[in-house]
Amino acid sequence: MEVASFHPSIYNYTYGYGHGHLFPSPNYVHWTQTPHSHLYSADIPGVRKEEIKVEVEDSRYLIIRTEAVADRSFSRKFRLPERVDVERITAEYVDGVLTVKVPRRGFFIHPAHAHLPARAA
């Protein structure tokens, strides 16, 4: 499995913000974020590592798909958040779970950790 560039085609398109399950199906994709990266996890058991494709299209879309496996396939397309490093995207497939790590570029302050100065009266 490798992360590669991709030429446009027809795929399911989903854009999410925040974190949670993006698909309620058995092959949902869970998206979460850390101060350093965005993480996409897909539960796709019964697939060989060689059958999984993780691709980036136009430096704006992340595509996760499988080759047809036992008359079923999996394909999801996400718009990447702004300020990510597409050159350093990594993917790992362990025990039926695919995890794609999309590193952020630049500095990120999580809103829960932001401390704003008090306003003068």
Query: How many domain regions?
Result: 1
**What spatial form do the alpha-carbon principal axes imply?**
elongated
pLDDT averaged residue by residue: 75
Helicity range: under 10%
Strand count: 10
Number of helices: 0
Structural class: mainly beta
Q: CATH architecture, please?
A: Sandwich
Strand order, biggest sheet? 1-6-7-8-2
- As an assembly, this protein is single chain
**What fraction of the residues are assigned to beta strands by DSSP?**
35-45%
How would a textbook summarize the main sheet? 5 strands, mixed
Per the CATH scheme, the topology name is: Immunoglobulin-like
| Amino- and carboxy-terminal Cα gap | 58 Å
- Point out poorly predicted stretches: 4-25
Q: SSE order, as H and E?
A: EEEEEEEEEE
Rg of Cα set: 16 Å
CATH class: Mainly Beta
List keywords for this structure.
40% strand; Immunoglobulin-like; mainly beta; 10 strands; elongated
Account of the 3D structure:
With 121 residues, the chain is mainly β. It has one domain (3-110): Sandwich (Immunoglobulin-like), CATH 2.60.40. The protein is built from no helices and ten strands. It has strands at 3-6, 13-14, 20-21, 29-33, 37-43, 52-57, 61-66, 75-79, 90-94, 97-103. A five-stranded mixed sheet has the order 1-6-7-8-2, with no helix packed on it. A hairpin with a 7-residue loop joins β3 and β4. It is elongated and about 65 Å long.
Summarize the structure.
With 121 residues, the chain is mainly β.
